[in-house]
Amino acid sequence: MSNIVHVTGVNDYLAKIKGEQRVIVVDFSASWCGPCKTLGVLLDQLSQKYNQEILILKIDVDEDGKLDPENQLSSIFQVKSLPTICFVKDGQFQQGEDYRIVGFNQNRLLWCLSSLTGQNITAF
């Protein structure tokens, strides 16, 4: 069973991250995106194995684009390509290119998660 949480809009996002102690993975994707589907399988596995350490939020950019511009998370996070992964720890967006992944990069994702959680996060 997947532990990935689907998010729509800024208010929903803020409600989901409020008080969250786990590292948050913010996954921007679309149903038509091939690399997004591959990443989705990996994120689903990680969400099950590391549910105590990470929370994965999924934003469908097509649905996000239907919202008023001020509620579009893809604009706020400046998403230009898919998939895009961003991270939040202790309520703070992790700045810099080290913690922003564009495209499918399993090794970099695992490195980011290991770095942010302080644990050795591995794939299956």
Written as H for each helix and E for each strand, in order along the chain, the element string is EHEHEHHEEEH
Mean pLDDT: 95
What would you call the structural class? Answer: alpha/beta
Largest beta-sheet details:
6 strands, mixed
Please state roughly what percent of the residues sit in beta strands, choosing from under 5%, 5-15%, 15-25%, 25-35%, 35-45% or over 45%. 15-25%
Cα-to-Cα separation, first versus last residue: 16 Å
What fold name stands as the CATH topology?
Glutaredoxin
Q: Please identify the top-level CATH class.
A: Alpha Beta
Would you identify the CATH H-level superfamily? Glutaredoxin
| Strand elements, count | 6
Number of helices: 5
Tally of structural domains: 1
Uncertain runs with pLDDT below 50, 5 residues or more? Answer: none
The percent of residues in helical segments reads 25-40%
Shape: globular
List the helices and strands and how they pair.
Elements: E1 5-6, H1 9-17, E2 23-29, H2 34-49, E3 54-60, H3 61-64, H4 73-76, E4 84-89, E5 92-93, E6 100-102, H5 106-117
Parallel strand pairs: 1-3, 2-3
Antiparallel strand pairs: 2-4, 4-5, 4-6
Describe what you observe in this structure.
With 124 residues, this protein is α/β, with parallel strands linked by helices. The chain has a single domain, classed as Glutaredoxin, CATH 3.40.30. The chain is 36% helix and 22% strand. The chain has five helices and six strands, in the order βαβαβααβββα. It has helices at residues 9-17, 34-49, 61-64, 73-76, 106-117, and strands at 5-6, 23-29, 54-60, 84-89, 92-93, 100-102. β2 (23-29), α2 and β3 form a beta-alpha-beta unit. The protein is globular.
